[in-house]
Amino acid sequence: MINYYETAILENEHLYGPGKRLIIWVQGCSLRCDGCVNEHLWSFDIRKNIAVGALMEMLDDSIEGITLHGGEPLDQSEELFELCKRAKKYNKTIILFTGYKKVELEAVKLKLWNLADIVVCGRFEKEKVRYNLQFKGSTNQRVITHKGQYKKYRCHNGKQVALLDVEKNGAISVKGFLTEDIKKIYNGLVVM
Ligand code: SF4
Question: What is the pTM of this model?
Answer without folding.
Answer: 0.93
